[in-house]
Amino acid sequence: MKRRDLLKGSTIMSFGMLRGGNAGGAVNEDPFPPKKIIKKSPAGYSPLAYLERVDNEITPRLAFRAVSRKEAQTWQTGLREKLWELLGETGATGGTAPAGRLLDSARADGYTREKWELDIVPGRTMPVYVLRPDGMTAHTKTVLCLHGHGNGARDIINMPVDDDARELIRVINTGYAEQCVRRGWCAVAPELFTFGERTDYVEDARPGFDGGCEKPFLNAVQVGKTLIGIRAKDICTLIDWMDTRNDINTEDLACIGISGGGMMTMYVSALDTRVNRAIISGYMTEMKDSILALRHCSCNYVPRLAEWADFPDIGGLIAPRYLIIQSGKRDGIFPIESVRRAYEKIRSIYSVYGIPERVSLHEHDGFHSFWNASLDELFKPLNQ
Predict the structure, then answer these.
(1) Is 384 among the domain residues?
(2) Among 135, 205, 210, 352, which has the minimal tally of Cβ within 10 Å of its Cβ?
């Protein structure tokens, strides 16, 4: 069943959330229920049961074990280098920025929407939307807004490609780039690799799940790369470009995203210390409870990652910068119990730095959706 079919089978309504925020349109049943998995019996015949046993026997080599700030900094350096290696990319940031080409500029209510194009490396070009609020100055805050699965950057800038996309934006509340610009911030929204305008046609691929990801993922692995690595490199190169511009302030750069956008917010914020604040929405768990336990798109996976670290370790690379972890209590594909365990592990890393108050967990009562209230705290002073 396609994602839009699930949404059509639900009644859409608005509902208030704690602290005055909301998580978009609520539905009366989970629009993203976990896909059923039945393991073969006897267990010795089951591929998934065997792989689960392998995972249970792994002790990640670079799991966090530091007890001092100095040890934590050394650990971060080592894991960051290893992570770039596993992703199949070089870790250098702050390199030569690509030239940007302005493709379009249009007025909207309260802001200007620009569409740019960046040549990341030979043969790889990325469209980017820049939403500038009216009255923008050199001191205007900038938020890097990353989309997840769906229709690409147009979902988060609230430019739905069709009626199904409009419904999906409302249910998951994915229009957060537009929400940022309406708060007076500059929002930068790249079209990520294998999504939107960067999607090839593959016959019989499933739309909305792995239609754009599965074939590129397999080809990337075969040539020593990963989709996460390519996307991370694209985004870091975008930050290089942003750094060269006098009209985009990256001094206190924030990065936000839900689902696959939360995944990329986690990786980019962990790898690139120019990101000073982050909201990871609908993604942060322990790997064994979501990515390994449930059916997810192939683009979530990094070969051999479990040998070295778990997601909370990657989240810990963001310390001592400001981090909000956000999740719905009824999110069926990123279970809240696992989210809470991951948060506690990350908080222990922040505690070694002496600033546990810089990481927080925001829970809402909905399913897999973005919670506006977290934006109210995105730019709170770091000394709090």
Answers:
(1) no
(2) 135
Burial class (CB in 10 A: 0-12, 13-18, 19+), 111: buried
Distance, in Å, from the CA atom of 197 to the CA atom of 178, rounded to the nearest integer, reads 19
Please list the pLDDT of the chain residue by residue as tens digits (384 residues): 344 444 433 322 222 233 334 466 667 788 889 999 999 999 999 999 999 999 999 999 999 999 999 999 999 999 999 999 999 998 777 678 888 999 999 999 999 999 999 999 999 999 999 999 999 999 999 999 999 999 999 999 999 999 999 998 999 999 999 999 999 999 999 999 999 999 998 888 766 555 689 999 999 999 999 999 999 999 999 999 999 999 999 999 999 999 999 999 999 999 999 999 999 999 999 999 999 999 999 999 999 999 999 999 999 999 999 999 999 999 999 999 999 999 999 999 999 999 999 999 999 999 999 999 999 999 999 875
Q: Are 173 and 24 in contact (CB under 8 A)?
A: yes
Tell me the sheet residues that pair with 364.
328
Task: Let me know if residue 383 belongs to a domain.
Answer: no
- Structural contact between residues 93 and 272, judged by C-beta atoms closer than 8 angstroms: yes
Q: What are the tokens at 242?
A: 């942003």
- Residue 327 burial (10 A CB sphere; 0-12, 13-18, 19+): buried
- Residue 299: closest CA among 110, 97, 87, 96: 87
Question: Is the CB of residue 75 less than 8 Å from the CB of residue 65?
Answer: yes
Please indicate, yes or no, if residue 50 is contained in any of the structural domains: yes
Is residue 341 within 8 A of residue 143, CB to CB? The reply is no
Could you give the CA distance from residue 26 to residue 330 in angstroms, rounded to a whole number?
11
pTM: predicted TM-score of the whole model, two decimal places: 0.93
Query: What are the phi and psi torsion angles at 132 (to 5°)?
Result: -110, 120
CATH code assigned at 223: 3.40.50.1820
Cis bond before residue 42 (omega within 30° of 0): yes
- Evaluate whether residue 178 is within a structural domain: yes
**Amino acid letter at 180?**
C
Tokens encoding 9: 């089978």
As beta bridge partners, residue 327 has: 363
CA–CA separation, 189 and 270 (whole Å): 19
User: How deeply is 163 buried, as exposed, middle or buried, from its count of CB atoms within 10 A (0-12, 13-18, 19+)?
Assistant: exposed
